[in-house]
Amino acid sequence: MDDVDLLVIGSGFGGLTAGALGAATGLRTLVLEQHTRPGGCAGDFALDGFRFPAGATVITGLEEGGILRQVVDASGAEVHSSPLDPSIILHVDGMTLPYVQDHERWKAIFREAFPEAPDGYVRFWDWAHRVGGAVYDIGTALPSFPIQGLDDIRRSLPALQPDVVRTLPWLVSTVEAVKQRFGAIGHPPADRLIDGVLIDATGATSGTCSAVQGAIAIDLYRRGCQWVDGGPAAIAMALVRATRRSGGEVRFQARIERVRKRTGGWVARTADGDIVRARAVVANVPPQALDALLGRHVEREEDIDSWGAFVLHLGIDGAGLEGIDPFHQVLALTGEPLPPWGENAFVSIFPGRGTRWSVSVSTHTDVNSWELPTEEVARHRCMMEEALVDATARAIPDIQERIVLQRSAIPRTFEHYTLRPRGFVGGLVQRPGRSTFRAPGHRVAPGLALAGDHVFPGQGTVGVALSGINAYRDACQYIGTGSLL
User: Fold this and answer.
1) What is the average pLDDT across 355-379?
2) Among 411, 413, 434, which residue's Cα sits nearest to residue 424?
3) Which residues, including other chains, have CB under 8 Å from residue 109's CB and lie 6 or more apart?
């Protein structure tokens, strides 16, 4: 039996943030992870001599004052990064557009690519830059939304800067409403570009995406995108090491099967029969998975407003590719959705040892479209793999000749390895009714908090890290100790 102050279930970015900060605070901290490596959907895995990302690939928030940088500094994790500019190369309608940091330069690139687009599109990019910057500044102040008590108000006060006023008119709007207000309509290629950037970061296109979330999604990659050797998985491992250096413990292949309230805290049981008594618990799992651990009724999975993912993993011969941009987004390959593919492919290129490079190509997919007989699943899988290899050719023209290894992951793969119901990934779609002040909260019960992409602020490693900060601060308050952030 283990007696700890803080038990963290799951070593995704939210759980690792809470665990590393908890250990650095001096709490007796135990992180339990069912797999053999940390990171969850931001982790990695090895396959036939290649190492692939499990999901997330792009890193933001490591610049001075950024959310991840605050976590790294406070926990003592050792993470070395370098800025990426351009952060992503966008491919749309046969054109290649570098998504550069400088706002005026980006507007010039956009005008040159779409000379017939109405001036309203440039006004829209100005809006996204202003409001996205304000939202980013709010995030770096580490707010706790939705406001559920005096402590949330206290934590969120530093975020209430003058720039926050810029966001207020857009809290109940969609990106489409903003576009129409500024006259950013009537040019399908430009619309596809905006929708492609939005859906990758928020799960929604302009018609349904929250304006506030859309602004930061559009502007984030140009505001602080960094390269870390080893990707997000390297940051996850750095947080594991920091937790251990501070006296905390991280155990792998330790799956929690049950969590119950007890006097003065919580008790959890692992699949191996080990018992952990904890004063506070942070669960970096989907809400439905936590409900199951608590013995509660589980929400019907078909009611979950999230996407699944189809990911193509390619091991390639990277000879001669030195200097290639690592991230590419390929939009509207066919002009029509390729069921069950979502018109958008994100290509991530990772140099390996020598010429053995890894390429990960992902796209959104409807998990319901994979509820098919085995032979139909195989046919869909083949079709998707071919489409994503074609997409990759926009970034690496001779990709077909370079492929050494080819595998793919469907929603069932994510369900098996991440225990996410039916393979839903990426958190809730960011619609106006579930962002900022109306976002799902992290509190479940006294001393029990959620971390992850299904609570405020939502998707992405930076968002999940902020959810971990809020869960950690709640644990500290419940235990009766001060917090580092």
Assistant:
1) 92
2) 411
3) 97, 98, 100
In this structure, the chain runs to a length of 485
Task: Output the six-digit token pair for 83.
Answer: 């800025």
Stronger pLDDT, 369 or 270, i.e. the higher one: 270
Q: Between β-strands 344-350 and 356-365, what pairing exists: parallel, antiparallel or unpaired?
A: antiparallel
CA atoms within 13 Å, Cβ hemisphere of 175? 31
Residues 285, 287, 292, 293: is their CA dihedral positive or negative? positive
Q: How far apart are the first and last CA of the chain?
A: 31
pLDDT digits (tens, 9 = 90+) for 88-104: 999 998 899 999 999 99
Is the preceding peptide bond at 440 cis, omega within 30 degrees of 0? no
Q: Which two tokens stand for residue 115?
A: 């000379």
pLDDT at 427: 83
Peptide bond into 457 cis (omega under 30): yes
Six-digit token string for 223: 């505001």
Contact 470, 55 (CB under 8 A): no
Rounded distance between C-alpha atoms, residue 171 and residue 207, angstroms: 15
Crossing angle of helices 175-182 and 211-220, rounded to 10°: 80
Q: How far apart are CA 123 and CA 69, in angstroms?
A: 32
For residue 7, what are the β-bridge partners?
Answer: 30, 281
Chain centre distance of CA 444: 22
- Unique residue bearing structure tokens 């409001």: 131
Taking alpha carbons only, the member of 217, 286, 302 closest to residue 455 is 286
pLDDT reported for residue 304 = 67
What is the band of 303 on the pLDDT scale with cuts at 50, 70, 90? low
The answer to whether the CB of 293 falls within 8 A of the CB of 283 is: yes
432 burial type by CB count under 10 A (0-12 exposed, 13-18 middle, 19+ buried)? buried
User: Could you count the other beta carbons within 10 Å of the beta carbon of residue 354?
Assistant: 9
Please list the alpha-helical segments (H only) found in 56-187. 67-75, 103-113, 120-140, 150-156, 175-182
Q: What are the beta bridge partners of residue 409?
A: 311
Distance CA 353, CA 451 (A): 34
* The predicted structure's pLDDT at residue 127: 95
Burial class (CB in 10 A: 0-12, 13-18, 19+), 119: exposed
The model's pTM is 0.94
- Looking at this protein, which amino acid is placed at residue 372? L
